[in-house]
Design a protein that fits this description.
about 290 residues; Rossmann fold; binds glutamic acid
């Protein structure tokens, strides 16, 4: 019997959601429905400094208002959620231990600021500079440590390794470790597991068969594939959605205070009409 489709909606409650999120989650829902599958809700609320309960609540209400729907409650194989990452840190810690024992990660004392200031290769992306090889410690640093806290822990990426995957919308994608990205964080000094680690652990634990998310996370997918491999887990398939842009061609983001779903709701917009708007369709021509 083939595996049942399981997708997820996984917002981070660091602000109110905007139309770009709604579109990605709408597509996730459509794809789950088309496969007669399950869609679960996961609140990615690990960063206590940036996440707020108010945003978590609003995300659910605003997405429901918009017409997004997901399954909740128990299912035969476990649960449909909703899940909160902040209640699942034991799982991330377990993954940290496996990676540490297998010498795939190391503690480092350099901050992101040090990295930004480094004159090293900035790679092929505009995200984070490549972590300088000279800053890597020897393999046995951290062996005796029982807990990650107090250090930034980085995943030691293989040198110049091609990471290939098929995106269900974009087709074949390829990135190269140490060229497109360098050693990346799996655990932060302040005790917070990174997005890259927590999302892999959860997608595997929740038996997610397809991850639908924005195209801005393509390079994260490449990083995450390295974590799947290092943990001996089978990756799901991936579908990256095009990003919604505003009148000036900039993509919508929480940081640039793009108009939120909450505001649209309060202003009396009709979600059915919004889904006919030009914003909704931007970049979707190829779907
Ligand atoms: N929580 C992430 C975000 O809101 C998305 C994670 C994902 O879909 O992998 O950007």
């Amino acid at each position: 019997m083939s595996q049942i489709y399981r997708g997820r909606i996984a917002p981070s409650p660091t602000g109110y959601l905007h139309l770009g999120h709604a579109r990605t989650f709408w597509i996730a829902m459509e794809r789950a429905k088309a496969e007669n599958g399950i869609l679960i809700f996961r609140d990615e609320d690990l960063d206590a400094q940036r996440c707020k309960a108010e945003y978590s609540e609003s995300a659910k209400d605003d997405l429901k208002w918009f017409g997004c729907d997901w399954q909740e409650g128990p299912d035969k194989g476990g649960a449909y959620g909703p899940y909160e990452q902040s209640k699942r840190t034991d799982l991330y810690l377990n993954a940290w231990k496996i990676l540490k024992e297998n010498k795939r990660i190391y503690p480092c004392t350099k901050s992101r600021k040090d990295l930004r200031k480094s004159k090293e290769n900035h790679g092929n992306n505009d995200q984070e500079p490549i972590y300088p090889e000279a800053w890597r410690p020897s393999h046995d640093v951290g062996d005796s440590m029982q807990f990650p806290n107090g250090y930034n822990w980085r995943f030691r990426v293989p040198d110049n390794k091609k990471i290939d995957f098929i995106d269900e919308r974009l087709g074949p994608c390829q990135f190269s470790s140490s060229i497109d990205f360098g050693d990346f964080l799996v655990w932060r000094k302040d005790g917070v597991p990174s997005y890259e680690l927590s999302v892999v652990v959860d997608d595997a634990a929740m038996n997610i068969t397809e991850v639908v998310r924005g195209e801005d996370l393509l390079i994260s997918t490449a990083r995450q594939l390295l974590i799947y491999k290092a943990l001996g887990l089978t990756p799901p398939q991936f579908y990256h959605t095009p990003l919604v842009v505003d009148d000036t061609g900039n993509r919508l983001s929480k940081r640039s205070h793009s108009v939120s779903l909450k505001e649209l709701k309060n202003q009396g917009y009709d979600p059915d009409r919004l889904r006919e708007s030009e914003y909704w369709w931007s970049g979707l021509e190829d779907l």
